Amino acid sequence: MKALKLLPVAAALLFSFNSYSKVTLPAIISNGMVLQQQSNAALWGKAKSGAKLTIITSWNQKTYTANAAKDGSWRLSVQTPKAGGPFKITFNDGEKLVLDDILIGEVWLCSGQSNMEMQVKGYSNQPILHSNDILTEAEEPGVRLFRVERNMSRTPLTELNAKWEHTNSETVGQFSAVGYQFARMLQQRLKVPVGIIQSAFGGTVIEAWMNKKAFEGVTDFKIPADTAKIIKNEPFVLFNAMINPIAGFNIKGALWYQGENNRFNAGTYDKKMEAMVKEWRSIWGCGEFPFYYVQLAPNVYKDGKDQVPVIYESQARAMSLIPNSGMVVSVDAGSQTTIHPPDKTIIAKRLLYWALARTYGKKGVSYMGPVYKALKVEGAKAIVSFDEIPAGLTAYDKPLISFEVAGADKVFYPATAVISGKTVVVQSNDVKTPVAVRYAFKDRSEGNLYNVEGLPAAPFRTDNW
Question: What CATH code would you report for 104-359?
């Protein structure tokens, strides 16, 4: 992990605001940005104290006015058209500031810890599948990148060291492999510009991404004294430094990939996700935007024993707690040697399926795999049925793996599992009368049960032991 570099305030201001005019803007509102199409897009910044500010949008030549407060702050919204560009926005409080190369399209935020932060060029000795192919095709004028650098603060910040960038092999190589590929595939499918905002920090807990209001009621995570040295896993510090400065910039939706560092308090993870998303939506002020997230992948963790299944369940429960949300399953796309699985393409595709089907209304696009429904016992056979299997089940001609069965003694044994119609029949010679079935319910257990549409079943158990 690279050493954290905290910028002095003066340097941050240099990067965050255009200093050539009295009108100053946050980094997220700058040349090359993408504004959400057909929305009331928020703009804000500073101007001369008490000045009357005029803003002209080139796509319709409409003039907006705002009165700067005593401290120079101002805020307003502009109406955006259907996708297109490039356009200009002119700001004037007596001195002009012109932003150009602005596109109108779809804007998404991607956030979380290292599996979201993992860049297209990979980590040391940890590759990204197809990375060189991705980089050879990186120059796409319809995709723009905004990468928030790592930072942390105990108080909410408004400045950033970041800028909107065009895609090329260098900028894409440093960007989130999940986020970029999602944006590129979305741009290809919708044929409109896409802006993707990355705000991710490896090795972090969800509590650090929550604001104080979202954290209310949390009892299993302590806030350190202000006199202690700041660390990235304090509550609020990443929200303050990496989310607050961009909150309010209109987005279509958010992508989330985090949870490895919450294995130790996994039972409350769903409630924290619910609280965090509720507050993000409230602060952004652009509606109940979709929130799509990735369930953790299997891995052999050296510091724990089968803690991941608990967070599997928390992540699955979060879908019923968070309106307009959806979970990508990755039980078939993990790694036994690294916490950072190399196949980020399949994860980006599965996030894309949720977005296309649920956000953009693309008919016929499947987005969910088989979901455990019920267990029926017939003699020595445990028969498992599922929802979300309109055309049935498959393991692509391979034997099903990672099924276990237990009797009344609550001892689980490896089991054979066979697809039978739209059910899976599970049995073991060691269990004469089954009571419970588990599937991929260990840290390291991979899964290979899919619906015919090609989407995997999430790990599950039929018991509550």
Answer: 3.40.50.1110
What is the C-alpha separation between 447 and 442, in angstroms, rounded?
11
Neighbouring C-beta atoms of residue 374, cutoff 10 Å: 11
Tell me which amino acid residue 342 is.
P
DSSP single-letter state for residue 176 = B
- What's this model's pTM, rounded to 2 decimal places? 0.94
Alpha helix stretches (DSSP H) within 143-268 = 169-173, 177-190, 212-215, 237-238
What pLDDT does 369 receive? 98
Query: For the chain, how many helices (H) and strands (E)?
Result: 10, 23
pLDDT digits (tens, 9 = 90+) for 53-73: 999 999 999 999 999 999 999
Residue type, 268: T
Distance, in Å, from the CA atom of 398 to the CA atom of 25, rounded to the nearest integer, reads 56
220-276 residue pLDDT tens = 999 988 888 999 999 999 999 999 999 999 999 999 999 999 999 999 999 999 999
Is the Cβ–Cβ distance between 146 and 196 less than 8 Å?
A: yes
**Hey, which bits of 379-449 come out as E strands?**
381-387, 393-394, 403-406, 412-414, 416-420, 423-427, 436-439
Q: What is the CATH number of domain 18-102?
A: 2.60.40.10
**Residue 289 to residue 303: CA distance in whole angstroms:** 36
The CA distances from residue 362 to 172, 234, 355, 392, in Å, are 28, 40, 9, 22
Domain spans of the chain, in order of start: 18-102, 104-359, 371-461
For residue 205, give Cα distances in angstroms to 31, 106, 234, 430.
33, 28, 8, 41
- Three-class SS state of 257: strand
